[in-house]
Amino acid sequence: MDVDFFKRITVVPYYQRLILWILVFIQFYPLDFVFLPVSSRVVISFLGLILLVVKILANIMKGKEILINKGIIQLAIPLLFISLISIISLNYNGTNDKQFLVYFSTSVLMLSSGFFTFSYAKFIYGEDLSFEIIAYYCIGVVLFQLILGISMYFNTELRFFLLNKTRDGLGQLNRKEAGRFMGFGAFFMNLGVANGVGLFLIAILLKNAILYKINFKLRIYLSFLFIFIFILGMFQARTTLICGLIAMCFWSFSSLQPKWQYWKDGLFRILKIALGGVILLITTATLFPEFVASQTGTLNYGFELFYSASEGKGLQTGSSNLLSWMLTIWPTSSKSWLIGDGMYSTSTGNFYMRTDVGYARLLFYFGIFGMLSFYVYEIMVIWKSFYKITKFYLPFFIYFLVMVLFVNLKSFTEFTHYLALFFMFNIHKKDAELKLNTSQI
């Protein structure tokens, strides 16, 4: 645990921190600028590949041995299975939907962008670079995206200016849902997932801060960030609510042992976060009553789940009702279950069978073996990204995996681009430890 990470963040010049912040932002939100032929994340990915080639050539010229981390090789196995099963499904069904046929190269690009961002972070921080510093940058970009989304919601000129700069933004120019904050480079559920990742990172920093008795002010600051992103993030995407609750459970319950003191302390932590949220809402309503009264649509969207419950309709929202219907759409033939229909989307741009459920989309594309290969890959990325990053890495992995599985129930979501930076940091850390142990022997 880097107990002084908050101080170490500021040891490098401001402009270097700004460049790293921009790289991390693009890692989370792939800005597809209209003046670039490809998205900004792809640009960084190619820079990462170029940097990798340069490093390999430099080692060759120095006569050093070229080693490949076994973690990279292990990730390649499920990716090869995904490609192979895609080929089988497409050939058998006579379709040409290449959604997962090219997933190997897509994953390489996502990891490559993480490699470039990590290399730059390592360049400016050197041996001071830690998991905590990387996590703090990630939390920072999530917070900025949320503040920017709020600003875009209330400032029409800013919204039109920013949305005009990206290709995906052009399609959202005239779409302003009542009460829903937008984003820059990401929209709807993707914003909720990014918020969830940010909340998990805050939770692990809080957990470590409590364990190592780090500065009390820092703990208060992290708690405020959690509450701020948790509550206002629901106005971007209500996925934030569930992701935040799972992150809150991790922060509150760090052990899986069912001891009374453990459960009592965990419930007390949840109550403290809930009380903080209530205080924030009451304070806002008290200080700005007219503003709050004018935002009925905003409140109805963000708290629709609770409004429905108070009206006797149960815990439901418009999107949850639609999801309930989509959960009835599954393959009806043995062939579809085994190798899929080779379709992810239709020629009209709609998802095949009009389902948002991630598991169903994968099943319809390349069957159960393809779906399992994909989630084995995702689980491996998560495990290798957070392995031994903290004393609580095992429960962190379990709770994070629960979030991933839930999110994919609502819609297909991949997490590689969120975790690529941590993956690169962790395998570099292992390589450094291996070299140290070898030199000591």
From TrEMBL:
Q: Superkingdom of this entry's organism?
A: Bacteria
Q: Which UniProt keywords apply?
A: Membrane, Transmembrane, Transmembrane helix
Reply yes or no: does the keyword Transmembrane apply.
Answer: yes
Q: Show the stretches that span the lipid bilayer.
A: 18-36, 42-60, 72-94, 100-121, 133-154, 181-206, 218-235, 270-288, 362-380, 392-409
Q: What is this protein called?
A: Oligosaccharide repeat unit polymerase
